[in-house]
Design brief:
six-stranded mixed sheet; disordered N terminus; elongated; five-stranded mixed sheet; 18% strand; alpha/beta; Hypothetical protein af1432; Nucleotidyltransferase, domain 5
Length: 522
Amino acid sequence: MSALAHVRDGGRAVVRRTAVIDLGSNSFRLVVFSVGESGWWKRTDELSEMVRLGGDLGPDGELSPQRMAHALETLRVFAAFCATNGIRTDQIEAVATSAVRDAPNGEEFVQRARRATGLPIRILSQRDEAWFSYVAAVNQTALTDGIVLDIGGGSLELVAVEDRQAVECVSWQLGAVRVSERFLHGDGPADPDEIEQLRQHALAQFATQPWVATAGRDRLVGIGGALRNLATAAIRAAEVPLDSVQGFVLTPAALDSLIEQLAERSPEERERVPGIKRGRAEVILGGAIVLRAVLEATGADGIEVIEAGLREGIFLAGELAPADPPIVPDVRRASVVNLARQHGVDLVHAEHIAELADQLVGALPGAGLPAPGEPELVDAAALLHDVGMAVDYDDHHKHSSYLILGSGLPGFTPREVALVALMARYHRKGTPQLGTFAPLCEEGDDELLLRGAALLRIAEQLERNRDQVVRGARLRRDEDDEDGVVLELDAEGDTVVAEWAALRQGDLFARAFGASLTVARS
């Protein structure tokens, strides 16, 4: 069967799986990534345990016996999970980071863990940890120039990026667990002097690398569990309609507010701040102070948060090999196509609709009509409008909308994701409106949505038979009606259904563009 046939049939079958195990300083995570026959990939399973291996270190920084025992038991569970799910050792990447790397008995612990579990555990160097964080960020955002930040339990990495290439990287012992145990003492509200000492310590570390003060002004992209948790809390506080932190920008003001709320509570009470996870409550303030210092040192307007992390970086580095560096050419396009393939979208049909919609967008100025703006969003919606068919035909426009929203569409902003989802939501029927997503949008986005949805709906109707008979579509002013527009079709074959279906969208077209619509073959 040809690759194209696979896409038409969905290409949804899983052809291989990879498990990535991250032995972090705070939590251990096992993530399973599946790859489909048509080239899609996604995270399909996950186990996690708050081990806090980087806590309770000995006087010389050695891992504690109690923490190691917890870690070994967790790794036995992970190994059993892989075995019972048919994931072979050669399909597992297991890496240890700062806590193990920096401990005098870290290598001894890894040897014990290998013998006890059979897992192929290796210790990542500081540079490798930073590199995989960079790979994750540059493949999950539209980052071109700026800084990638990764905050873990034991360390903080910063990577300078120019033209999508990593040019500088550095790692400091500024992870959330490590700084909390070193600087923030006591069981009550945080001591302001200790907070200031931590802030000054972090700023002094950043000052040793002059590029930190300038590289992040263009864009600062961040990964790490503490950052994601803080972003979740900021989203809750702002009451914006987001179910994912992907693309959310954590501003200095939002971070200051969270630091104030966290500092006035005891470590045990910090989980009461809406959005803060119980397992991170004791160390989240330390992480927040370090992140605020990063913003101060870089002068960035905020930290763009992504769902991906070190684990995705390791997986993608393997998937994209031997590319050097392992990055996709166009993150936004790859994100859209990946979601479409995950859910078996007929890309021949969808791409033809996208082409027709693009032709209509291009014809608007010549017909004296206002363009919707941001045609890339119309294109994305065209490719994804039928993704909800994977759930059911009935209401598939609604299913498409929530699948798009749930995916986060890496490379797009939350506002853009909402607009793409809404265009897909209204590709069949209904009056396009921003609704609950208005807080994410900008002035004029209601018109953008209305016009984009109208063009998508017409393009969909021209391909109603899924036969690509209508090869082209143009708009021109009606010579016999100054308020009318003619939709001219370039076609080979019967266009009875296409003409009938397109003409039924005349009311929406008139609402969007202020002109009546007629259909004719050229």
